[in-house]
User: Which sequence fits this backbone?
């Protein structure tokens, strides 16, 4: 679920706390934390190799690793506010499993004209597209978000993610060359 609000941080925090107080996502309705993971993502994956393929550094979070990549090539506004990677305008890939049998899931933030190239790229690399939608109203330029899921060798999945990222900004760069 995505939410949008306007006001001071204190007002927004109070409104959010009130909204979730009686839901299953309320902190008081959560099960106790389990034991720490037996292995960390850096023990499971060759992070340096995958970083070299993706061309970004992964964050290690328990037994997973995650790449989060903003859209530095665009300035996007929605309802008068600038959208940034820090508030969710990014593409990301999370890996779990092992180098030989990995799972990837993530999200790609695209402009409308990039959608078909990204979908073709992912599908040609056996990555399933599971959702295609927008998150914002009044965004300029219009942004579309694609969720995906795949499995296979971690290096192959990392290359598939990199290839999808390479589709972003491609037409803009091609137009600048002409």
Assistant:
């Amino acid at each position: 679920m995505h939410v949008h609000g306007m006001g001071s941080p204190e007002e927004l925090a109070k409104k959010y706390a009130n909204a979730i107080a009686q839901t299953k996502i309320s902190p008081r309705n959560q099960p106790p934390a389990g034991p720490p993971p037996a292995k960390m993502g850096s023990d499971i994956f060759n992070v340096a190799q995958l970083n070299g393929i993706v061309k970004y550094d992964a964050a290690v979070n328990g037994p997973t690793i995650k790449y989060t990549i903003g859209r530095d090539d665009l300035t996007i506004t929605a309802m008068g506010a600038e959208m940034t990677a820090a508030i969710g305008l990014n593409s990301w890939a999370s890996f779990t499993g092992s180098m030989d049998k990995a799972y990837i899931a993530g999200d790609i933030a695209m402009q409308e004209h990039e959608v078909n190239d990204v979908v073709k790229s992912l599908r040609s690399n056996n990555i399933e597209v599971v959702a295609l939608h927008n998150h914002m109203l009044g965004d300029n330029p219009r942004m579309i978000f694609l969720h995906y899921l795949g499995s296979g060798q971690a290096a192959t999945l990392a290359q598939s993610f990199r290839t999808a990222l390479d589709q972003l900004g491609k037409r803009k760069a091609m137009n600048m060359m002409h």
